User: Fold these one by one.
Assistant:
Number 1:
Amino acid sequence: MVGSCRSCDSCADHLENYCPKMILTYGSMNFDGTMTYGGYSDIMVADEHFIVRIPDNLPLDGAAPLLCAGITTYSPLRHFGLDKPVISTSPKKKAEALERLHADSFLVSTDANEMQAAMGTMDGIIDTVSALHPLPPLIGLLKAHGKLVMVGAPEKPLELPAFSLIMGRKIVAGSAIGYEGDTRDD
């Protein structure tokens, strides 16, 4: 994000990422009426409050994944106290998930036996899928008091069966990009 109103309750609480007038890096209208184009821009001007300093000893190609996608997944891990299981439709991602991303576990969602064995075992899941997909299998993986945190934004509404939430005091929540303090890990 590159701007916010700096005067609403969210901004006063240093949660500019939930400001109703937030200006996103891409596809938002700036205060001066120009459109933001993010990575498609030749240049970009932003309020210094929203600039993240990259340490000199961190290569830019190593810093890039920590920004948009990285902070979007880190923020709910931090704020909801979640473990790091990786659930994927592809077994080909297992090595990367466990070795490079340091996932706590890996589960293939298209493997009925793996899904059945994992039912009721997870404290939380971050759902990054932005396509239409069923929520009941994910909710079934949660322990009582488990949390399903949505960061993916499917174009069409998802069906949410209330009974599966009620019977385990389970929570479905959402999380947008992280706030500035998350990038510094305040």
Number 2:
Amino acid sequence: MKVEALDTFWTDKSRYDVAEKRFYEGPLKVTDRNLYSPLVSEIVKAREHIQNSLEKIDGVSLDDGFKSQILNRLTQLESENVELKSLLNTVVARLDVVQAQLNLTNVNSKKKETSKKEEQEDDVDLFGSDSEDEGEEAARIREERLATYNAKKSKKPVLIAKSNIILDVKPWDDETDLKVMEAEIRKITLDGLLWGASKFVPVAFGIQKLSISCVVEDEKVSIDWLTEEIEKLEDFVQSVDIAAFNKI
């Protein structure tokens, strides 16, 4: 047999005939699975499964008893909702009444307080009255109150401004007797001046300086005056410096 003859020979023509027939007849249930390929068989199975599922869903329905239960529950909920709304309206109305009573009570209370304050102001007069009709008793009460007020005012403590000062006093040389110099400085006295602790601080080359503290009342003692008084001790003092100055 020639090659040209093999090209025109159709070995599986019967399968194509069957497929064409079923294409025109429409999808049918599979009776003879040997006539179809595996893919066609799976497609048919899927179609049958989908069709069966749709038929089951369409067949589902609620029975009359279940429907009756749902309707009864809805009716009960609607009734409870109406009762709750009525109860809420009642509560709101009562709250409005209570609020109105509270407002009225507050107004009356404020009026009473104002009236009481006015009566007290009328009854109590610190400085009395200057009218000619004033009696002797009222004048005496006024004078007693003024005396009491002035006494309290005079007993009020007055704040005194003070300062804490540390002075560095340098001698002329190492031969200066610092103890004698300190004694001379402490002889400087004034109302409002209080001398405090002191110490000797090395400076250089064997020379020491005197560091002495004091507390002064600002209104009574001047810092310039104090330093000038110390510098007047020319036999002992070379210079005076303020090392620290703090308000008390």
Number 3:
Amino acid sequence: MASNAAWRISAFSRCTSIVVNPSCKKNERRRRLDFSIARSVRSEMSLSIGTHLIPHPKKAETGGEDAFFVSSEFGILAIADGVSGWAEKNVNPALFSRELMSHASNFIKDEEVNCDPQILLRKSHDATTSIGSATVLIAMLEKNGTLKIANVGDCGLRIIRKGQLIFTTCPQEHYFDCPYQISSESNGQTYQDATVCSIKLKEGDIIVMGSDGLFDNIFDDEILSEISKFQDMKDAAKGLAELANNHSRDFYFDSPYIIEARKRGFDVKWYEKALGKKLTGGKLDDITVVIGQIIQSSNES
């Protein structure tokens, strides 16, 4: 065997490599062994989260009818917007949305869920016993950066990358101002009616989620502008919620909701149109904002 030799031993079970370099010289009694261990480094994606909720002015004392659940540990963002029409039947619309989100928080470790927002929605809905209904949006981030989304109704989600909007969800509705909704009634929608999609995210991407109270009162370009002002996601969520709330109280603001209403034929009387008037204003509502920024961490194994 040659006097200078090298052997490489790969320890695949620990993803390490050990290099042994014996140096053999004539009459030398000692051998020098140099070990170089290269550990594998796995990058994982997680979320830095900020939230803010502003109830409808008339529902401030009870906290409104929106509910949400977030978890940085499990990469989950979820919003449920209780349908206010149930109040006409002497039912508290908040009970259904709050119970639904409570069950969602309990089922996140369930093996069957396995980072599938549609399954999480099914199990949470099945467990909910309150009377009522809600629009629901659940987003779950896998460690590899894939965001999975299940949406029923008109809660919304936007994804921002380097200051540009790269993804938006589309609302589901029966007709104007009547969205799809998960319900206690048999004729309501279920998890099977959810729009399901997934998108690969990168470090620094920002997820903006909200109830319709956000997106009915604020335009996408305003979201981009407002988000750019903040580094902290909690401050960003508060800033967006307050901007939407200000618009909702402005009788002269030409809001996204009012623009859509005019497109659907809802406007001022014909004689007011003749005078150059048009339907304007924001939409008073509960406003929930949930923001998650993608951060990357490295785990050495």
Number 4:
Amino acid sequence: MALVPPPFLPLPATVNSRRIVCTAATKKSSIQRGDAVGTDWVKETANFFEKDSRPIMLFDGVCNLCNGGVKFVRDNDRKRNIRFESLQSESGKKLLQRSGRAPDDISSVVLVAKDRSYTKSEAVIKIMENMDLPFPQLALFLQFLPIFVRDFMYDRVADNRYSFFGHSDSCEI
């Protein structure tokens, strides 16, 4: 009996210059990981953006570093440009699938906008662009670093965040 490799599944993203960007248009025809075939997560989560178009920051709700990051963003976002949702919540899982990620993937902060999603260092930069001064200027500077360098640094911190900063039993935000 010969083993047959699984069929190729299209990635739910398009390549835009140096980065991968998940867009609503690409998700309509894509099959999400860990999801029932054919579920349109853009439609399923459209209600998140019907009355409020602000982007949503998805974060690891039990990570002390992530909770501290959310508090920092809230303190430096006086205009309230960003909403927050834990990755472990039901809403967070749906938004993860909208972004082309598995519903149990807590490996990265995700910024979900109405028409696209950002992960890792791209998410951090987009979050900084929505914060008060001087963070938008710092984000502009960070964009000049190659994405592979930014994501390498992001991954080193993310992979060790529980070891360095600890975690709690429940979301503190």
